[in-house]
Amino acid sequence: MRRTTLLAAALILAGTNAYAQTEFPSRPITMIVPFAAGGPTDTVGRLIAEPMTRMLGQQVLVENVGGAGGTLGAARVAKADPDGHTILLYHIGQATSVSLYRKLPYDPAKDFTPVGRVTDVPMTLVARPTMEAASAGDLLGYITKNKEDVTLVNAGVGSASHLCGMVLMKALGVPMTTIPYKGTAPAMTDLIGGRVDVMCDQSTNTSGQIKSGNIKAYGVTVNKRLGSLPDLPTLAESGLDGFEVSIWHGIWAPKGTPAAAVSKLEAALQAALKDPNVVKRFADLGTEPVPLDQATPAALDSHLKAEIERWKPIVQAAGVFAD
């Protein structure tokens, strides 16, 4: 009789566990964007949150946790309960933080469960509206001639604009006076106001300002022109060979998140990347969703590890570190 009771209890427990797994998500999901609201990564997050909400049956809420180049928000997700209800949308900084920060409180390759890549965003080289240079070649010549008198702004150490600026200075072999801001918005405000000279930032942030004439655009950092900005040449067309930078984004959950939850998050991400509104809005911003075979945990895991190795020598050569 006792064996029968124990067996029945075990079957009930197993059934309860199986049911609990099918319950995900049981409440709204918080998508941590580790940058200020209104920035390019925030834009990506808010575009995919709505179709992911429809697929998951629970609201995906974007929460901005800025600071320390994105590492504060990432650290929060690394320490969150691994139940799938807290996820991280981060960009290439997830790879470069390993080299940029001496005391990183987590391991990007070990303390997260990958869900999938989202998009690869081209960068654009832009300048204040009063910049004298008429073409990208003129601007590169202006930078080379004036060197440290040129102010190069970014959204903070570890931001996409900071990384692009480092690559630009390395490609030109010219130092500029770099000015880090606390977010993309104040940096763009000062660029529009003509108080600073140059910025290299994601097309998701600059396209609208370029189209409205608020800033001058000189080139894109990928090897083909953007459909949303067809008249803007690539930097390679302007003679800056070998300069190719795009800012990829991915979604992670905390380490130990159950496979069933990760699978549902992956399916929701893929559904979002096929959503017609997302595809259109991404195109308007000069980007596009990654192929679906890249929106997987395995593809993101492999890509992150390769990018960590790629950026190590670039960051070390620049000699830029943060505590």
TrEMBL record:
Residues 1-20 form the signal peptide. Keywords: Signal. The keyword Signal applies. Pfam families: TctC. The keyword Signal applies. InterPro entries: BUG, Bug_dom1. Belongs to the UPF0065 (bug) family. This is ABC transporter substrate-binding protein. It comes from Skermanella aerolata.
